[in-house]
Amino acid sequence: MVELHLTQSNWEDEVLNSDIPVLVDFWAPWCGPCRMVAPVVSEIAEEYQGKLKVGKLNTDEEPEIAVRYGIMSIPTLMIFKNGEVADQIIGAVPKEYLIEKLEQVL
Amino acid sequence: MYDVIIIGGGPAGLTAGLYAARGGLKTLICEEKVFGGQILMSYEVDNYPGFPKGISGMDLMDNFMKQAEKFGVETNYEGIKGIEDKGKTKDVILSNGTKLNTKTIIVAAGASANKLNCPGEKKFTGKGVSYCATCDGAFFRGKPVAVVGGGDSALEEALYLANLASKVYIIHRREQLRAVKVLQERAFSNNKLEFVFNHVVKEIQGDKFVNGVLVENVKTGELSRLDVDGIFIYVGITPNTKFLEDIIELNEDGYIIVNENMETNIPGIFAAGDIRVTPLRQVLTAAADGAIAASCAQKYIERNC
Questions:
Q1: Residue B156 in 3-state DSSP?
Q2: A13 touching B, CB under 8 A?
């Protein structure tokens, strides 16, 4: 697994100050679609290694970050570029659609 | 060349995959979004036999997936653009343009949740509008929410939300619920639920997030507002058959017509689960359909290919 485990303590370094864009997967253990979308996120992490950082944020463990970004539905995938939210995708979507969104930002 | 390509990775598709692969067929399941299908949204499935304590939709589908993979089924995350019947074999055209050749196809693409199509719904999706109480309920702890619909899903999810939310309004356009009696009884005796019968949603309101819903009394035309932070929508499903319209025989609602062998009007193309005309749409019936479809696909190959 190449995805980073994101927390309050590494959020700034790994996401906001990252040199490359970051895809953050907001998820929780009790969310079925989140668990089943995980393999797609893993595939993306492998395919885009070096160009894109991929991290996972558990909204149960880190509710403050979830609130800060107005997360009220999971899975939500957010793409960060230069510390800002460049795009977001709510709900499970086809991999192809996710790649399309990523390519626009990259 | 595949023996079977299964379109869709919910209970029907995964069971068809299990049976086909276990029967020694070269089998691929294409799933556009997430393996598991609609049941992933369910917090607890308490009518799937073999689990007397109930099981979450997620755990049940995790098991389905593992069991299918154990027998060597291949999987991918590809959408389907269309299918072509070439007589003895068929082509499945993936959304990336790739054509895959196969002897048989099992269509198990399921159905999707309907939208209300009212102002505010799209704008506030993920900002208070949700189609999955299990996923998003926790974000509404101690807050008032509304559920729209009067079927089994609406009541099941309202009862789940009642554990978290401060209040749950159930907005239903009729005076009577469609849900099964056991759910109705549970709902009527739960003091966190308040029924708003004979009302339809006119608009979902808010600024950054949802803060209310405007409803109309269908009998008097009177408008009123409910202050809620979340709205969960369960107003039926539509079969995912758009890509098949010109090829396979559908009924007036878009569901695939099959015979008792799960065969469509085209030899070698089968359908299973929520996508077909059937009196009951459950994990159990979808799985049974999948088993029949795979077994009949195998017999079809032995006879014709």
A1: helix
A2: no
Note whether B54 and B46 are within 8 A (CB). Answer: yes
Say which residues have a Cβ less than 8 Å from residue B278's Cβ, sequence separation at least 6. B255, B285, B289
Q: Flag residues of chain B having pLDDT under 70.
A: none
**By the 8 A CB rule, do A40 and B77 touch?**
yes
Calpha distance B107→B85 (Å, rounded): 13
Query: Does B36 lie at the interface with A, CB-CB under 8 angstroms?
Result: yes
pLDDT digits (tens, 9 = 90+) for B176-196: 999 999 999 999 999 999 999
Residues B192 and B130 occupy one common structural domain:
yes
Domain boundary among the residues B204, B233, B262 is at: B233
Tokens for B100, please give them: 């895959």
Q: Are B41 and B23 a contacting pair, CB within 8 Å?
A: no
Q: Predicted ipTM?
A: 0.84
Are B269 and B224 in the same domain? no
Total domains present in chain B:
2
Residue A1: which pLDDT band, with cuts at 50, 70 and 90? low
Nearest to A33 among B34, B56, B230 (CB): B34
Of B303, B246, B299, B297, which Cα lies nearest the Cα of B102?
A: B297
User: Which residue among B205, B233, B261 closes a domain?
Assistant: B233
Of B33, B42, B126, the CB nearest to A92: B33
In terms of residue numbers, what domain contains B34? Answer: 2-112+237-304
Distance CA B41, CA A65 (A): 24
d(CA B97, CA B89): 18
- Whether B121 and B223 share a structural domain: yes
Residue B57 contacts residue B36 (beta carbons within 8 Å): yes
Give per-residue pLDDT as tens, A40-82.
999 999 999 999 999 999 999 999 999 999 999 999 999 999 9
Looking at the fold, whether B68 and B168 belong to one and the same domain comes out as: no
